[in-house]
Amino acid sequence: MQIIATVDNNWAMRSKGRPCVTIPADLRFIRQLTKNKVLVMDKEILDNLPSGMPFAERKNIVFTTDRNFKIRGAEVVNDLESLRKLLSGYDEQDVFITGGNTLIGEFINDCDTLHITKVDHEYRADEYFPLGKEFEEFVIAEESEEQTLYDLEYYFFRFERKG
């Protein structure tokens, strides 16, 4: 499995359910990386996608505790046990977890690769990338040149599990 996340200098991801920042090139990167793959997200991530609809050309799985929620173009799962069971039917390298932090924290031990877009800024936030001991198992395998969006600088990182 792989994780995709966008964070700031303090590893902040969201504030009040909304991303701290949205970068068009980052969305294009996610679309390219996950095309014809399995993309797992919580409902808040889905709500913040363009038009609030799942990406086309991939298997979208939305995690929410709202048992009445349904959406065209995605399979909805309401508990972690059911999600794990569903994901066991896919090739692990085809599964991308894109958040929020509960899903990332739940699956980071199952992942070998992290795709992190790091924004050189500090936002007010209430949700952060889980940087526990699990994260210490990763090293930077690749780092992009500086990217810019107006006066905002950001970098694409690929972390790989040690060993």
Description:
By secondary structure, the chain is of the alpha/beta class. The chain has one domain (2-161): Dihydrofolate Reductase, subunit A (3-Layer(aba) Sandwich), CATH 3.40.430.10. Helices cover 19% and strands 35% of the residues. The protein has four helices and twelve strands, in the order βββαβαββαβαβββββ. The strands form two sheets. Strands 1, 4, 5, 6, 7, 8, 10, 11 and 12 form a nine-stranded mixed β-sheet that branches. It has a three-stranded antiparallel β-sheet with strand order 3-2-9, with no helix packed on it. The longest helix has 11 residues, at 24-34. It is globular. 30% of the residues are buried.
Task: Give the second-level CATH assignment, the architecture.
Answer: 3-Layer(aba) Sandwich
Instruction: Note the main sheet.
Output: 9 strands, mixed
| H/E topology pattern | EEEHEHEEHEHEEEEE
Round the Cα radius of gyration to an integer and report it: 15 Å
Mean pLDDT: 95
Name of the top-level CATH class: Alpha Beta
Give structural attributes.
163 residues, alpha/beta, Dihydrofolate Reductase, subunit A, nine-stranded mixed beta sheet, three-stranded antiparallel beta sheet, 4 helices, 12 strands, 35% strand
SSE layout and pairing:
Elements: E1 2-7, E2 12-15, E3 18-19, H1 24-34, E4 38-42, H2 43-47, E5 59-63, E6 74-77, H3 80-87, E7 95-97, H4 101-107, E8 113-119, E9 127-128, E10 138-143, E11 147-149, E12 152-161
Report a brief summary of the structure.
By secondary structure, this protein is α/β, with parallel strands linked by helices.
